[in-house]
Structures are given as C-alpha cells and as structure tokens.
C-alpha cells in the first residue's frame, strides 16, 4: 500500500482558497493531532497504571482518571482555541459553548470501545463537524448540515478514516513523526460479501423479524438467503466500521426489549451521523431500519438510535426483514408479524 502525501496536503488541496473549508480543515487537523497524542497515551497508559489496563484506585484512595476522561480532555484542549461553536462529547451531559460566534460544532466520542483496553483490543474516536452556531442543536436535522466526519482507529496501527463529502479516505499514522499519511485510493465498500456484525448475546430481546434475519444468516446455504455467512463482533464500533469499509457486509445494533434499549445504545449525534456520512461516501448505506440516518431529527443531545450500516445490498436486505415487506413479497416465507425494532 503506497502513501500519497500527508493529511495536511490533502486538507490544503480540499480547502484551497475557500474560507469555510479552511476552517473545517483546521478543525480536522487539530482533531487528528489530538488523536495522535491519544494513540501514544493508550500505549503508555498501562505503564502508568502498572497493569497494562485502565485506571485503578491510587494508593491514597483517590481514583485515577479513566483513559476515556483523559481522551476527552485531549480533544477538548485541542479545540479550546479553535473556532468551534459547540463541543458535544460522549463524556459530558451538556454541550460546551466554546465560541458563540463560530459557525461549526464538533460532536465526538473521544474513546469508543474503552472497555477493550483491559484486554488490549482496538478502540477509537469518532467525530462529526456540523454547520451549527452556538444555539440549540436539539430539534434540528444535523445530518443535513454535517460537513465532515471521521474516526480514528487505534489498533496495531493508528488510522484516520475521513470524509469531507468527496469520498472516504484513509490515513496512516507514523508514530515517529506524529504525521498522518494518506494511503491507497478512496474506500469503496465491497458488495456481495457475506458477513454480519451483531451482538448475538441479545438475541432473546430482539423482535421476531430481526431474529429471522440472523437465523437465516446462521442457517447458511440451507436458509432463505442461500449463502454461508461469517459473524464478527469486536465490541468497538470503529473496528466494525473499518472492517466493513474494507471487506463489506453489514453491522447491526438494533433496539431491543431491554429497559432503555428500545432505540439501541449508540448515539445519533456522534456515532450514527459520522458513520453514515463515511459509509455513504464509500458507496454504502446507513439506516435506523426506517429512515436514512442522515435525514433524522435530533430529539435529545445524547439521543440513541438503532443503527444498520454496510453495503447497500445487505442494508436493504435487513430493512426488508425488519419492516415486514419481504413477507408481503413472499421472498422469505418464515416471517412473523412486524415487531418493534424502534419505538
């Protein structure tokens, strides 16, 4: 895989002499730099705790700050002097006003998959840049005003996946220089791949139509779908998204019957929206099972939403199952009545 220039070169070319794009490029640059610092922090954090994992109670009884909290502080500090109207973080209940005169808001999950640190598995950071002043963002349709989105993937290598609306691009961190290098061509999600990612431990809580989809995947060639599927589940959204961008398939985090999980667990503003832009710019689709993620209204700052994304074929297939339209068409005769994937 060959490199084709630094992240800064890509951002300079994308922004050119457009003043608004220059602001967005500067925000992306700050986020990427903070991500490079977080990548190093994740590597050294285990040395500080003495366990290889996350925070432990200190000798004086005080609890050390978690890596997720430190991640939030890194990104918040990096953006504190930037023209950001609002900073919405998974680590804060309320939005933080940074510059009331600024035009762009940043929404971020500073450390997705933080529980994976204990077992030395992949984690990430997911962010969205939205054209939004310092006013109330709740009640708007932020996906219609999303100007850029990306995620940092902290694995054996640290990668930045980024879309500014001109495709989805991949950058690789050089730890020695703390610079991100663009690699490969714009990402396009492969069609026709037989992989699905879902937490099957929650099977008993799903509605019957969704269970039928998973049953037919597991049934392989003998099932209604007629193909042998592989299942993946890592516990980190960024890891699932990265694999699907490269290998295809579909990711599902539905709502279910558990208390407070009627709309799933993932948040619209800083999980679903950025991934929807990234996936759609790579030729895929993202939906809550009823409408496209990018068209959704934000009902609360940390509103949850069922999330299905991946190649268009697989996403359409899942929607047929959970909506009951496949029953009407006679394609899948094992269907029961439509359940409640979302409330």
List keywords for this structure.
single chain; 343 residues; alpha+beta; Fructose-1,6-Bisphosphatase, Chain A, domain 1; D-Maltodextrin-Binding Protein, domain 2; 2 domains; 5-stranded mixed β-sheet; 21% strand; disordered C terminus
Structural overview:
This protein has 343 residues and is α+β, with helices and mostly antiparallel strands. The chain has two domains: 3-183, Fructose-1,6-Bisphosphatase, subunit A, domain 1 (Fructose-1,6-Bisphosphatase, Chain A, domain 1), CATH 3.30.540; 195-329, 3-Layer(aba) Sandwich (D-Maltodextrin-Binding Protein, domain 2). The protein has eight helices and 14 strands. Strands 1-9-8-7-6-5-4-2-3 form a nine-stranded mixed β-sheet, sandwiched between helices. A hairpin with a 3-residue loop joins strand 6 (146-154) and strand 7 (158-163). It is globular and about 55 Å long. Residues 332-343 have low confidence and may be disordered.
Short description:
This protein is an alpha+beta fold.
SSE layout and pairing:
Elements: E1 3-6, H1 7-15, H2 19-49, H3 67-79, E2 84-89, E3 96-97, E4 104-112, E5 123-131, E6 146-154, E7 158-163, E8 169-174, E9 179-183, E10 195-197, H4 208-219, E11 230-232, H5 237-247, E12 250-253, H6 268-281, E13 285-287, E14 307-310, H7 312-323, H8 325-329
Parallel strand pairs: 2-4, 10-11, 10-12
Antiparallel strand pairs: 1-9, 2-3, 4-5, 5-6, 6-7, 7-8, 8-9, 12-14, 13-14
Helix pairs in contact: 1-2, 2-3, 4-7
């Amino acid at each position: 895989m060959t490199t084709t220039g630094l992240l800064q070169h890509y951002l300079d070319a994308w922004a050119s002499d457009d003043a608004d794009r220059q602001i967005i490029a500067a925000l992306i640059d700050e986020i990427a730099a903070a991500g490079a610092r977080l990548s190093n922090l994740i590597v050294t954090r285990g040395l500080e705790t003495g366990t290889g994992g996350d925070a432990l109670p200190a000798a004086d009884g005080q609890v050390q700050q978690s890596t997720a909290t430190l991640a939030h502080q890194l990104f918040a500090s990096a953006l504190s002097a930037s023209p950001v109207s609002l900073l919405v973080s998974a680590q804060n209940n309320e939005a933080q006003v940074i510059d009331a005169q600024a035009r762009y808001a940043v929404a971020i999950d500073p450390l997705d998959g933080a529980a994976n640190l204990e077992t030395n598995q992949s984690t990430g950071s997911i962010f969205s840049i939205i054209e939004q002043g310092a006013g109330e963002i709740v009640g708007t349709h932020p996906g219609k005003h999303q100007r850029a989105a990306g995620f940092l993937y902290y694995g054996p290598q640290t990668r930045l996946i980024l879309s500014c609306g001109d495709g989805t691009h991949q950058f690789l961190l050089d730890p020695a220089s703390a610079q991100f290098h663009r690699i490969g061509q714009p990402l396009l999600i492969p069609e026709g791949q037989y992989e699905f990612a879902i937490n099957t431990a929650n099977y008993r809580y799903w509605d019957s139509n969704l269970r039928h989809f998973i049953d037919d995947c597991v049934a392989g060639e003998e099932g209604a779908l007629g193909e042998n599927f592989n299942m993946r589940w890592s516990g980190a959204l960024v890891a699932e998204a990265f694999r699907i961008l490269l290998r295809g398939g579909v990711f599902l985090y539905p709502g279910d019957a558990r208390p407070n999980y009627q709309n799933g667990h993932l948040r619209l503003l800083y999980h679903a929206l950025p991934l929807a832009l990234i996936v759609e710019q790579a030729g895929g689709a993202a939906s809550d099972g009823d409408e496209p993620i990018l068209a959704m209204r934000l009902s609360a700052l940390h509103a949850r939403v069922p999330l299905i994304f991946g190649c268009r074929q697989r996403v359409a297939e899942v929607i047929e199952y959970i909506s009951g339209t496949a029953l009407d068409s006679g394609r899948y005769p094992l269907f029961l009545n439509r359940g409640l994937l979302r409330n």
